[in-house]
Amino acid sequence: MKRILVTGGAGFIGSAFVRNTLRNYPETHVVVYDKLTYAGNLNNLRDADPARHSFVQGDIADGETLAAAMAACDAVVNFAAESHVDRSIMGASDFIRTNVEGVNTLLAQALKLKVGRVLLVSTDEVYGSTEEGSFKESDPLHPRNPYSASKAGSELFGTAYFETYGLPVVITRGSNTYGPYQYPEKVLPLFVTNAIDNEGLPLYGDGRNVRDWLYVDDHCAGIDCVLRHGTPGEAYNVPGGSERQNIELTRRILELTGRDETLIRPVADRVGHDRRYSIDGAKLRALGWAPNTPWDDGVSSTVRWYQENEWWWRPIKSGEFREYYQRQYGSKT
């Protein structure tokens, strides 16, 4: 794979994938394609070799611009997505446009250009919630919010393009991912940056919802493994193996930032809040992948990154972000 198109490559996981690909495959050129919405940030690519990646600003729903960027690429990895559950509950239209219509456009262009491999990055949330056990790839999808429903829709389009047209599509379903450069609407960077500023941490409900945490570089390694070794038409779970209740995460962040639990601000629970996500990673492990970052090492280094890189997140936590934050949490305390 000498030339790879990474859509959504200026976002959190996408930019990490770009950086890791350039580091691990010195003969590969990466074309980064990103609309640069509120969560896209070219500063996320500041450490990427400028001689080995190029940038195209565009929407994956814009077939003409996308096709020009995709030309001569051996593979496409799609990270472009609206990805925040709370925003999807406020309004689903943007999620349908990007996550479903946009993916259909991407698949159609990849088919036309005869791209050798298309990987759709999805989420464990498509399975819905489970009280016990872990979901396998063969389990039915049961999304329970507009975000996860839109991601399930994108997966189904990918599978349909494989079954109908033979387009070599593979799918990954990652668990809750964390690390540097994550937009601070997500719980871990939100809580870390709020704690740094001695601002309240808005914890939903009783704080007992369980998520499986996956360090971003481990997630990218799993995606790369599926891209290169996965079977077309198949989906692969990418779990972190570190299930934690949200209250545990909150307390650990407070400990690492030197704050106490008086900063915890219980807020009314998210509507339709999934109680527990858990996925089985045996299928991907059989390809040789396993997460390498222990939970405490990953969360400690992530907190330290936000402490040392206020230049990156302070400008973000103003303007549009502050308006969103007030809409989302201002009336729930």
Summarize the structure.
It contains 12 helices and 12 strands. With 333 residues, it is an alpha/beta fold.
Number of strands: 12
Mean pLDDT: 95
Taken as a percent bin, the fraction of beta residues is 15-25%
| Radius of gyration over C-alpha positions, nearest whole angstrom | 19 Å
Along the chain, the helix and strand elements come as EHEEHEHHEHEEHEEHEEHEHHHH
Widest sheet, order of strands = 3-2-1-4-5-6-10
SSE blueprint and pairings:
Layout: E1 3-7, H1 12-24, E2 29-34, E3 53-57, H2 63-70, E4 75-78, H3 85-90, H4 93-113, E5 117-123, H5 146-165, E6 169-174, E7 176-178, H6 187-196, E8 201-204, E9 210-215, H7 216-229, E10 235-238, E11 243-245, H8 246-257, E12 264-267, H9 282-285, H10 295-308, H11 310-313, H12 320-329
Parallel strand pairs: 1-2, 1-4, 2-3, 4-5, 5-6, 6-10, 7-9, 8-12
Antiparallel strand pairs: 9-11
Notes on the structure:
The chain has a domain at 3-177 and 215-238: 3-Layer(aba) Sandwich (Rossmann fold), CATH 3.40.50. It has 12 helices and 12 strands. It has helices spanning 12-24, 63-70, 85-90, 93-113, 146-165, 187-196, 216-229, 246-257, 282-285, 295-308, 310-313, 320-329; strands at residues 3-7, 29-34, 53-57, 75-78, 117-123, 169-174, 176-178, 201-204, 210-215, 235-238, 243-245, 264-267. The strands form 3 sheets. The chain has a 7-stranded parallel β-sheet, with helices on both faces. Strands 7-9-11 form a 3-stranded mixed β-sheet. The longest helix is centred in the first third of the chain and has 21 residues, at 93-113. It is globular.
